[in-house]
Structures are given as structure tokens and as C-alpha cells.
Amino acid sequence: MRLSPQARLSALMLAFLASLLGLIAILLTPHQLREWRNAPGHVESSRMLVVSSAEHPDQFYWQPYVQYLYTVRGQVYHNDRLFAVDKALPGDRSNADDLTRRFPAGKAITVYYNPRSPAESVLIKGGDSDIGSAKFILAALSALFGWALLYRLRARLPLPRRRIQRGARVP
Prior knowledge:
171 residues, alpha+beta, 3 helices, membrane, DUF3592, DUF3592 domain-containing protein
């Protein structure tokens, strides 16, 4: 089924806006963490989980699962959130293995917590390398869709024509 030029242009505009909104959402999330403070803590347990979704039981990914304790103003808190951006980022086995080795059970750690709600905390304040990759991919997609959209729009608009006389110089 072939799409009309208007439908193709609309789809291109929608893809551009979706990729741009995704990029903006990812870029804005870490800025909320500037005010977060750090507290001493220790890792209670650390292991890898193999996870699959109900929709696709044949597809699975590895997820690091680290439980930790930390103390803020004499109050002890318990959490398992690793990243500032997302709690469960799908990844490959080597990434999950690296994180479980980085935070072994019994290790003393620094925990970053929200001073307005100390029960909110993370171990890795800036996200992980997958988030950096997602930012790059979304930025590249936004640029690609934006360029294609501009190209399609320029092709649809008539360009002003100038008459050049013989022997006249073009400025």
C-alpha cells in the first residue's frame, strides 16, 4: 500500500515530534537530582534477575537487583533503585553482571536521596551508559527526521526564480 505524499509528510512530522519529545523527557529527568544529597549506606544483597514480559515470554533480559540500606537523620531506609532515570532498564548480561559486581553484598556505599522525601534514593545518580546511548540515538533520530522533514517541505514549496540576463553578474 502506497501512502499519499501528504500522509508520508504527516508520518514524518509525527516521527520527528515523537523522537524530539522522547529526547526532551530523557534530558530533563536528571536535572531534578541536582538537589539530592548523599548518605552512607551498605548493600544488603546483590544478584541478577532474568526477566521476560507476559506479551513476549520468549524474549528475556538481565536486570541487576541490588537491595541497600541507608540512614538519613537517624532514620533507616531500605531501597533497591539503582538508576535515577529508570528502575528497571533492560540490558544485556554483561551490564547486569558489572553492576552486581560493582555493588556486592556487604559493601559500604554512598546513596543519593531526595531531601524532600528521603525514602526516594538511587545508587547511580547520573543514569547508566544505556541512557547515554538512548540520548545519542534519540538526538540522531530527531536530527534525521528533522532533516527529512525540511527536505520534504522544501521540495513542496516553489522556489523564487530570478531571471539572469546574459552578461550580467550574479551577486
